[in-house]
Every structure is written in C-alpha cells, then in structure tokens.
Amino acid sequence: MSNVYKYAGPDTLDLIVKDDGIATLKCSYPKGFNDPFELFLTIDYQTEPGLLAYYEEIIGEIPQLPTTCFSRSPAVAPMWAHYANNLQGFAIQFDEPSLQEGFPDSGFGDVSYLDGPSKGLSDLLEKAYVLQKPRYIAWLQQGAFQAAYYTKADYWSYESERRMIVGENEVRSIGSVMLMDTPRGSVTALIAGPRASGELCRKLQKKADLFECEYFQMKIGRSSINPFFLDASGIAYQFDGKGLVPSRDLCDACQEPVRVGAATCSWCLINSSHRDEAAGRNTFRMMAHYGILDDYLKRIRRMHSNK
C-alpha cells in the first residue's frame, strides 16, 4: 500500500489544502470516533464478572492517541456520498511513505471489519486470568489496543479504512481541535467529485499546480458501476487497487473504459436500426396507440395493491 485517500466536502478545500503546499488534517481520539460501538469489538463484555473485572484491571482505559482516518480507495461511492457532500466535494491522494517519513512516531494499520467481539482476545483474557503469566498480560494489552484502534463493525466495511496514529508531539491544537500539517510532497493528487462545481474543479486544478501534483475528476460512466477518472488532459484512469493508472481499453467514441478487447462500448454501438427494432418490440407503444394502455396499467396496479 503506497496511497491513501481523504474525502472532504467542497467548503473545506481552503481549510485543508493550503496555498503554501501543506495539507492540514484533523485528528481525533478514539473516544470521538463516529462509531460508538468500536470498543465493543475487543472482548465479549457479556462474560463472567470476575473476567470482566480482571480485564478492567489489566487494560483500564484504552490509551487515547491522535488518529486520522483514510480510505484505501478513491472509488468508493458511499464515501463520496457521506464525506464529500453527495459527490460534490473532493478527495486527496497521499503518499503513505511520505506521511510516515514526516511523522516518524506514527503508525499505520488497515481496519478489520468484524461482526462481533474478537474470540481470540477473549481466549487470551481467560489465559491471562488463569495462568497470570506476564507475557499473556502484555499480549492482552497489545491485543486490546490493536482491536480498539483497528477494528470496526462490519457494516462499516465499505469505507476500506486505513488509520494513522500519530504522537501527541506531532499535532497542534486550536481549542479542542487537533490538527496535523502534512509534509510537502505527500499530496500526490487532488480529485474532484463527479458533481463538483466548475468553480471547485478550477480551484482544485490551481491547487494541484501549487502542490505540483496530479489533478483528476471522478466520472460516473454508463456501462459499469466502477467509476473512472479523467486527468487535466482528459485521459481516462482507473483505480487498480493501489493507485490511479491509465485505462488500457477505451471506447473509441465516448472514451469511457471498456472491457478488455472491446473497441466501442455497447451504448455507442446503438444505431437507428437498433432503436427502431426496440420501439417495434415495445408492446406498450401499440397499446398506447389503440388507447388501452392507461386502463391496462390501472388494472395491474389494482392487482398489486390487492396482494
């Protein structure tokens, strides 16, 4: 993994992407995460009181460290909807090694998505409780920390989340808000959402020039649920699981990506004879011509309402 992505709304552009070549990100403590049930994925809290008291004794409260969250993909439609103001915002592509170099005390980890507490951690708690060996206690503490920071309920799995934990000395605070200023060169692309305004797209392109990074706009095609991305020159890119790469196969008419080996997408292959045949096969057209379509549809609706 070399790239990570941060989604944002259109009104935050100047707050995050500064004209001095630095992007500023907000950090939060785990207690402020948007999922109130995250800490429920450590052990099964519906256990024997003695075990639960021992867990509380050994673990106490999970250490609170500044954390910022990314996605591993710029092509997640729900992320664009939820975090980028219904596809009107933008996403930032960061080079993870550059972030790690700029924040030497930081750590990265992929979030695992679970449908319940970790059985392995519950088993480890029982071993530590029974055997009382220091190594089991240490492993329990490490496991609880890992689960607290890097697990979420499986209904969040669409996020493809990757988290960055930074040291307290690596952030600055404005009131209760913790901020981290990313190093120059860590922003490698700015991506406009498919519904971004023309003004936002122009601003992003100017920012991309200042940052000496790439600019893309995400596009929703007509042939696939997977989006594609156009760079400033109109060249199509696709996300390959690691980054945005030029599309190898494009429709020669509309320039949308197509399946391997195809020269033209099916939409662009439609001609007048296809449309004439489709109209001829549309029984509703004939029924409308003879004035019986409305009555037929009313009967159909009544049949469905009576079921």
Walk me through the structure:
It is a single chain. This protein folds into 2 domains: 3-181, no CATH class; 270-305, no CATH class. The protein has 11 helices and 15 strands. The chain has helices at residues 13-16, 49-59, 77-83, 96-102, 119-131, 134-150, 198-211, 266-269, 272-280, 283-289, 293-305, and strands at residues 3-8, 24-27, 67-71, 90-95, 107-110, 112-114, 151-153, 161-165, 172-174, 177-181, 187-192, 214-219, 228-231, 236-239, 244-246. α7 links the parallel β11 and β12. α5 (119-131) runs antiparallel to α6 (134-150). The longest helix has 17 residues, at 134-150. The radius of gyration is 26 Å and the shape is globular. The relative contact order is 0.15. The model has no long low-confidence stretch (mean pLDDT 91).
Give a nutshell description of this structure.
By secondary structure, the protein is α+β, with helices and mostly antiparallel strands. The chain has eleven helices and 15 strands.
